[in-house]
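Tutorial handout. Part one gives the primary structure; part two gives the three-dimensional structure as tokens.
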Amino acid sequence: MGVLSGVKIIEMVGLGPSPFCGMLFADLGADVIAVERPDETVGDPRAWSICSRGKRSIVLDMKKAGAVEALLRLIGKSDALIEGFRPGVMERLGLGPDVCFSHRPSLVFGRMTGWGQHGPLSNAAGHDANYVALSGTLWSSTQPNQSPEAPPTILGDVAGGGLYLAIGVLAGILRARQDGTGQVIDSAMVDGSAHVMNLMLSFLPEYDFSIANLRPGALRQHWDRSYVCADGEWIILQAVEAHFYKHLIRLLGLQDEERFAENLRSDPLVWEPLGEELAALFKTKTRAEWSELLEGSDACFAPVLSMTEAAKHPHLLAREVYKNVDGALQASPAPRFMATPSPELRSIPVKGRHTLDILRELGLNDFEITSLKESGALG
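Part two.
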């Protein structure tokens, strides 16, 4: 079951954000049918193919006779289709929006690309870092005079890509259920990664974002940065509000030191020297010792954990944020629905596991299925 139970979505399996989006739909209970290409991995276990979880897998070779016709029959029974190819690929396969709408007028056709369906770069190759660099997101998260780097796949593929595609497709389905009209969703990672910046832009109207030395965080406020501990591990502070800052300083035993007074904390002249002082302080204890002192307080503190460490943290254990399925660590579905909980995590299906089941659901008889096999359409 799940909150999206009854919703059927076709995913043209590719790389990056569209499989993540399909996983999100499956996590929430949708019937996601992953249309996969035939290769030598058909039938092999794939426990670490986490973005394939919860989906049904059908193998179709779109270049072989009968495959497109079979997929169009499936489209005729679906709410949405998502794909992550370059502009024009689906059209060349005979599966462009116009063709699909003729089989399902209410279909939501979700298109996930890096640069979008139009514009000077629309047909250029790229990856996560390229899109977030062009949108300004990478610049804003980099310290001056340091190499611009972002966490792999998170800002572009996931935040600016897969999640925006999911929102767009769900909004399109809601609209289609009102008036029966389908539409194309043009979801571009460069668009989404720019859009996520609006919250930060609204907080900082006084900054001139064209001047590098006024970049948010450039001066590294001592109350909003990371520190290395005695054991080489890291912690991070973000005591932005005055009352949280006062709480942090008190827990650190510095409340009687005038230089750490709250009325001075917004003075950029103190940030660097006080940061150096706190850096020396945090090197006197291990990360575990600082966690024991500060974690769970209003100091706005957290240890910097790897994903395997995070999976063992008491808070994440209590919420069952990470689970191990067939030896593969993966994060549980989010968000959580109290009335319609998401399905329990199960083993990742092997590629092509549901091909025959899906074809029979479409009403294909044994002769038609055999013909597809003989044409090579099923791999």
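Part three, for discussion. The mean pLDDT is 92. DSSP finds 16 helices and eleven strands in the chain.
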